[in-house]
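Researcher: I'd like a candidate sequence for this fold, 698 residues long. If you have to choose between options at a position, lean toward the conservative one.
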């Protein structure tokens, strides 16, 4: 959450306030003064004086990068410095670990940061002013990391520890800001304690013009306690008190705090049934501006699964706020509202919010898609979220494809390790490594295979880039004598990449896969990879209504000897299910029943090994809500639905919507007009569970 401080525009939000509190603690009377000579003493005594001087300079450079919020550079410098220390368990090592942990947390690597902060806390344990000051900062950093991970109870404990270690004067600015951070965590861990803390803070917080933003942030937090407890009129009262402190609700020029206040007011008005005021406030908060500026849904938007793993029911809902960095990563994820299907319940809001916070942390955008969207509109994006009923097993063929490709590549022994846990964090490192190896070894060297492989499979990269990398990779893999099976799989992957960027993807797939099959079938007629090519080509032909050609390919898969393609192989099973659908569409119910029986699956099991739903009608008509159009509000939604065996859509529900609660009903109405090709599943009415489709309103 500390990363949202980098979005401050002169009127920072709650997360930025927490960052200021930590900076204030680092300067408390000089008690956190760094003893640079300790770093030099930690190096072997034989080290020359010049080396000791270099260590001091390197620490100062790393500290400067951290202060400048260049967290990537800071972590690299502190990592290099830590590796040089002979006694990392000394106080000097503890100080470096502390700074490195901070840099990791601020750079979105919270788990790694927490591990280092834990180590530093054990080292910096002396009962001295200096160590107590360091521990106060470390607790605050760890609290920030735990909030970002949705661990609100643990974060609250750390905020309390930071307050205790800092030993500040009561009601000092730093103490008030730390207590507000504690209250923010308590909203989701202990709502009643949050209510008491915020009521106390509002009594003592200054009412000066300089402190207007801070007081407004307290009023927002206090309102959210009531919002999540179902006390909507009370929440509205607190939000209305905050509005005049930051510019009102109708001005055209707005700050980040204006967006937050208006967003909270819009949410409270929606939940109170005030539809007109809700629409007005969404418009004045700039809630649809991200869409108007060209921002599409993220490249990857995983949702928490419904069920026992998360404790979420399909109608549980959360509203989450976050910022999008220039490199496409998400930062500053913060829950605003969460409720069970039966209605708001403050005591369980945290249990609903946590899985959504953890899921949104994994979202990312392709950086190229952000160029038309100003940073200002990316600093407080709000989304309405629900869990997903989609089964991870819904396409076992895709899973099998990935497994085959990865296993074949691993057997080549060409791994490439880069730091960073997210696709967006790894992407620039991979590009730099490719450039380095190209310059060192030439454009045709096998040394380029590892970075090209990693880049072609990086989800944050743009499709045209990935296509180019794959086109470079395949000849190098062939020259390196990669297995024919792996080369065939890469050919399928390249064909699919090429199809993404055209208006009629199945035409491109049919063309490229036909050529690939003509190459593979004579050499490896019964190979599993050849049958995968047949299956993918048959899918493209079905989508182009070439059912006879598709059936011929599917029958070749089914007739493959069992020793080459097992009876329960997902490729064979998928081919049989498709044959059943094609036969049923041609009114040959006997052949359809025979193909279905040959799978060996019960009707219920068929839903676990389902085939890709083939659309017949994707027209939904004009579904733009009249109120949103009148206010000029745009938005993005994703709807999840089940497809009955008849091809009709059932159980449509909004799982992602931005701005919240504006376009959901319209999206669901539109989704119900979609039609898909019927599937043959006698005794089972469900053809596909958890299908998804995105909508954009502009």
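Model: Candidate sequence:
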């Amino acid at each position: 959450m500390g990363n949202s401080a980098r979005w401050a525009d002169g009127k920072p939000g709650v997360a930025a306030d927490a960052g200021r509190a930590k900076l204030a603690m680092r300067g408390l009377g000089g008690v956190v003064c760094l003893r640079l000579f300790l770093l030099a003493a930690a190096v072997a005594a034989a080290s020359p004086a010049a080396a000791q001087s270099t260590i001091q300079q390197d620490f100062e450079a790393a500290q400067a990068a951290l202060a400048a919020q260049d967290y990537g550079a800071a972590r690299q410098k502190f990592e290099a410095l830590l590796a040089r220390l002979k006694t990392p368990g000394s106080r000097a090592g503890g100080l470096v670990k502390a700074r490195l942990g901070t840099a990791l947390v601020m750079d979105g690597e919270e788990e790694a940061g927490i591990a280092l902060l834990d180590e530093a806390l054990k080292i910096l344990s002396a009962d001295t002013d200096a160590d107590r000051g360091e521990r106060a900062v470390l607790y605050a950093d760890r609290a920030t990391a735990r909030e970002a991970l949705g661990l609100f109870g643990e974060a609250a404990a750390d905020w309390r520890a930071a307050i205790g270690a800092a030993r500040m004067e009561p009601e000092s600015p730093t103490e008030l800001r730390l207590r507000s951070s504690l209250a923010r965590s308590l909203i989701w861990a202990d709502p009643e304690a949050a209510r008491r803390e915020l009521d106390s803070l509002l009594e003592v917080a200054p009412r000066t013009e300089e402190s207007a933003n801070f007081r407004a942030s307290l009023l927002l937090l206090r309102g959210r306690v009531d919002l999540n407890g179902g006390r909507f009129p009370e929440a509205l009262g607190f939000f209305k008190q905050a509005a005049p402190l930051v510019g009102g609700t109708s001005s055209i020029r707005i700050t980040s705090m204006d967006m937050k206040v208006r967003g909270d007011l819009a949410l409270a008005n929606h939940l109170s049934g005030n539809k007109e005021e809700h629409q007005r406030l969404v418009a004045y908060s700039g809630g649809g501006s991200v869409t108007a500026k060209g921002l599409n849904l993220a490249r990857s938007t995983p949702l928490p699964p419904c069920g026992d793993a998360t404790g979420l029911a399909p109608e549980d809902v959360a509203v989450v706020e976050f910022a999008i960095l220039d490199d496409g990563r998400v930062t500053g994820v913060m829950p605003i509202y969460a409720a069970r299907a039966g209605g708001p319940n403050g005591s369980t809001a945290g249990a609903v919010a946590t899985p959504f916070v953890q899921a949104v942390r994994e979202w990312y955008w392709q950086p190229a898609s952000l160029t038309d969207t100003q940073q200002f509109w990316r600093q407080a994006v709000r989304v309405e979220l629900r869990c997903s009923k989609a089964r991870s097993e819904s396409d076992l063929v895709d899973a099998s494809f990935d497994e085959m490709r990865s296993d074949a590549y691993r057997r080549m022994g060409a791994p490439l390790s880069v730091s960073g846990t997210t696709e967006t964090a790894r992407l620039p490192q991979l590009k730099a490594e490719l450039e380095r190896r190209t310059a060192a070894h030439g454009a045709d060297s096998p040394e380029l295979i590892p970075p090209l492989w990693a880049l072609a499979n990086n989800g944050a990269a743009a499709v045209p880039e990935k296509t180019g990398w794959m086109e470079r990779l395949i000849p190098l893999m062939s020259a390196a004598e990669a297995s024919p099976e792996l080369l065939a799989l890469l050919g399928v992957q390249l064909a699919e990449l090429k199809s993404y960027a055209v208006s009629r993807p199945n035409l491109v797939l049919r063309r490229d896969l036909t050529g690939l099959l003509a190459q593979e079938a004579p050499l490896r007629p019964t190979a599993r990879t050849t049958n995968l090519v047949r299956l993918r080509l048959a899918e493209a032909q079905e989508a182009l209504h070439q059912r006879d050609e598709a059936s011929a390919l599917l029958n070749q898969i089914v007739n493959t000897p069992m020793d080459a393609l097992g009876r329960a192989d997902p490729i064979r099973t998928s081919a049989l299910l498709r044959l059943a659908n094609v036969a049923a569409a041609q009114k040959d119910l006997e052949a359809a029943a025979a193909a279905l029986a040959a799978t060996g699956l019960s009707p219920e099991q068929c839903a676990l090994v389902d085939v890709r739903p083939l659309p017949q009608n994707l027209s939904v008509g004009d579904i733009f809500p009249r109120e949103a159009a009148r206010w000029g509000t745009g938005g993005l939604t994703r709807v999840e639905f089940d497809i009955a065996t008849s091809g009709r859509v059932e159980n449509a529900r909004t799982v992602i919507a931005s701005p919240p609660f504006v376009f959901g009903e319209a999206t669901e109405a539109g989704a119900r007009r979609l039609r898909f090709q019927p599937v043959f599943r006698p005794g089972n009415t469900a053809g596909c569970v958890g299908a998804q489709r995105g909508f954009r309103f502009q």
